[in-house]
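Project outcomes to date are best conveyed with an example. Our students and postdoctoral researchers have been running inverse folding experiments weekly, and each run begins with a structure described purely in tokens. The record below, which covers 71 residues, was selected by the lab manager from last quarter's runs and is presented without edits.
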């Protein structure tokens, strides 16, 4: 009696698809929680305009025609 050896060939595409679809509910929940957390953190950050701060700090506002006028 001969036994058949079967090998399962899995391509990288099938493995990638399987890794995305396996435990998909937990992955979606993790993305939603991370997004909510990021929005909460972003709301806590000050809303400075870094470009305007840089221009005012280096007194380039007069040359560019923006910023506060230095007297």
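After processing, the design step wrote out the following sequence:
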């Amino acid at each position: 009696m001969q036994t058949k050896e079967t090998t399962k060939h899995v391509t990288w595409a099938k493995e990638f698809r399987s890794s995305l679809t396996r435990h998909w509910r937990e992955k979606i929940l993790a993305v939603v929680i991370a997004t909510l957390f990021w929005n909460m953190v972003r709301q806590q950050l000050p809303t400075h305009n870094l470009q305007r701060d840089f221009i005012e700090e280096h007194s380039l506002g007069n040359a560019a025609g923006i910023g506060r006028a230095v007297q």
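The chain has a mean pLDDT of 79. Residues 18 and 70 are 62 Å apart (CA to CA). The training component of this project remains on track.
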